[in-house]
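Quick question about two entries, pasted in order.
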Amino acid sequence: MDFKTTKKDDYTLIEILAEKLDTVIVPNLKAELVFISSNGEKNMIMDFSKCRYVDSSGLSAILVANRLCKSAEGTLVVLGLQSTVERLIVISQLDSVLNITYTMEEAEGLLKNDNKHQEKI
């Protein structure tokens, strides 16, 4: 299994279990992201703590998740980036677009704050 999805109360957790998020895994991951979104989920946390390498197709999957969440007026949080993956995201300037945290507590806190902000609007 290359990734695992777990439905929580306020979000869906997507754990990338493979060491490489590449063209082998990405088509199934993108299909899962669309499925999650079509079921009404607007918030996702993607956990990369076990993933050591992401190629351009992997970055594309992250951006798909981000777009799906934004379209649903929700939030994507990227969690637990390894240094090589984080470096690629910074070089690609996606760190200015993505919500990046280092712990699950930070990720859940970010979602709670975003949900409170959405309720006030």
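Here is the second entry:
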Amino acid sequence: MKVFRSWRAAVTFLFATFAAFPTFSFDFSQLENSVVEHTLKNGLKIIILERHDAPVVSFDTYANVGSVDDPKGYSGLAHMFEHMAFKGTTTLGTKNYQKEKGLIAVEDSIFMELRDERTKGMFVDSAKVKKLEKDYEAAREASYQLVEPNAFGQTVTREGAVGLNAGTATDYTSYFYSLPSNKVELWMALESERFLNPVLREMYKERDVVAEERRMRIESNPIGRLIEQYIGLAFSAHPYGVIGIGHMSDIQYYSRKEAKAFFEKYYGPSNLTIAIVGDVNANDIFKMAEKYFGRIPYRPAPPRIATIEPPQLGERRMELEDPSQPILVAGWHIPELTHPDRPAIDALFDYLVGGRTSVLYKKMVKDKKMVAQIAGLPGFPGDKYPTTALVYAIPAPKISNYDCEKEIYVEIDKLQKELVPAEKLEEIKARAKADFIRSLVSNSGLAGSLTSYETYWGDWHQMFRQLDRINAVTPEDIQRVAKQYFTKNNRTVVLMNTIQS
């Protein structure tokens, strides 16, 4: 019997074993039983997995809020607040908070007056706008003089932090990094403080950064422009139809007032989940968490979005003319991540466009040389609510979007009429299991997986049921979902056709 000195070694061994025996069934019960959890009185859940093979620990703070939750008229606010969460607190990031607080109030007052004047349309007073813009710039610069830039990042980096980052997705926002295990209390103090006493300093400066990010990712990027049109066309009711970074007019409109309201609604402790994986003692962590995170007052978790995207009654189609190269996106409405049909849909997409061994890659890239690139993604733009599965392709020179589109539909039609060969399904399952196991190798990967499963499924234990769901898929399941979801009436297509500039 092989004895493992660390969980890293154990998982690595499992991965190697799995690669050799694709149908092998794994028992993750020992790993699952090593995970412990504790919920504070204010509703904050903390999940811990002790791994003592190295004196490091990874932290993942997972907020159950993403761009799908942006208030109407303030798209991009979830992403904007993620930027603000690194700006410090009443004690970190300022040279003199009391003085800074007063200057921030002046800055806000002038901006609100300027915003009101700008939105008067034909009745706007241009002379007043010009004066207010000058006063606004002066107020901004005055408040910025009291800022200690990047104080949060510099503090944790100085203490050995690696991987300091955050990300705003459609469904969630995650804050993560790793530290030496003797710096856990530092993390506790800083992380709890930025969700207890955040100061949204440099708000308008950072808003300009976000606006520039939109210009770069969407307005100056052909694929970005295409995707924004695709989701807007695919979703007529659900907020998945708004691009995560937000509309430019919204980015330039919102103020600290809206950002603070967003924070109060979505960043209460009952809407946060924390995973800590590494060289820690769980009992010590729970006591420390009571001391630091227990200070945050209880706020009820916000309700899920009630809007349901109505069934699509016919194909939705848009053709754009652009000086870029041709690009094709075709997508179909599918259920959310936790729906019983999703493992079969995911398997279908792996068979269809899952890398170099997929049907469409072999046919359209290798054999017919019709496309320079083809790929797909089930679960776009999000996965918490019913979503879409999309295929995108970039045609080769002298090949049209229409030619590529026809070839994609030919293969989908085959999936509706013919069963996927059993040996191909075993390969698909092998890749899915390998991807899953790979995600468990690192502390940071485990922390992210634990918080994700806890939030999407309401129970982190579901992470350890994933292999069962993969194993249960049959060729008949794939054929059934192909017939049910991948139909013309359920399809949204956006083509970007080249024109001469």
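Reply: DSSP finds 19 helices and eleven strands in the chain. Residues 1-25 have pLDDT under 50 and may be disordered. Hope that helps.
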